[in-house]
Amino acid sequence: ATPTAVMVATGVGASHGVLIKGGQALESAQKVDCIVFDKTGTLTIGKPVVVDTRLLKNMVLREFYDYAAAAEVNSEHPLAKAIVEHAKKLRPEGNHMWPEAREFISVTGQGVKAEVSGKSVIVGNKGLMLSSGIGIPLEASEILVEEEGKARTGIIVAVDREVAGVISVSDPTKPNALQVISYLKSMNVESIMVTGDNWGTANAIGREVGIEKIIAEAKPEQKAERVKELQLSGRTVAMVGDGINDSPALVSADVGLAIGAGTDVAIEAADIVLMKSNLEDVVTAIDLSRKAFFRIR
Ligand code: ADP
Ligand code: MG
């Protein structure tokens, strides 16, 4: 690339809030033939809200949420924040003093554990229950499948080593996601979704945004491994993400694109930052790079 072409493209990018960290990023972006999208916070709005609660034990809703919130208030995860916010609504008097949680443990990509009022409280996905030796009753499994089909995430709450209920959380897809994915297709760029969330929810979200190729239940290192596999098969891969858990994949990809509203770790790891946090700017970035290199060919 001529330095001038790179400079012009970088300048135009900056004026659109697309921060390109150097000529190499631009050169790689021009060759991209597939883009791996993180789900939560990238394809979805990333602000999950509690939409339903199913109690499976003889426990009142407030008590159930006191346990869940006491454990989750220690977590930074968006799902944890959704649960705490909902618990606050059940205590409108403003008394948001949850019982004290001891021995808090956060299991990345699975959930949290703590001891609350002398009871063991475990909040998270099926995997966390299994690894903690908590049996999942059929009723709970059925709720999970039902919720996943609706593109929601079912979070299991176990109190005293028994499943006490399931919290349903919804994180809607971004309104322009479908349009961006179909536009990329018209540019001969294939889209793939990768997520730590379960297969059911991931497939349902995939249907909403028009992505067929899905990789679910992926830990952060596995996200990076999938990117490397695609590269080994001869593809030039871009990764779009917002979270700490996306940073290994952002580094591995030929081009890492971070959502500006995402975590600092993701922004550091990326080659291109989408300052406006608008998915359409993925198209802007690819388009700019293609134009820059077309001119000098
Ligand atoms: P994503 O890749 O979609 O951002 P994560 O890898 O962060 O998802 O989490 C994967 C799954 O682990 C979540 O869908 C959820 O079921 C469970 N999980 C993670 N953290 C928590 C938490 N603090 N509370 C409850 N569940 C959690
Ligand atoms: Mg994310």
UniProtKB/TrEMBL annotation:
<comment type="similarity">
    <text>Belongs to the cation transport ATPase (P-type) (TC 3.A.3) family. Type IB subfamily.</text>
</comment>
<protein>
    <recommendedName>
        <fullName>P-type Cu(+) transporter</fullName>
    </recommendedName>
</protein>
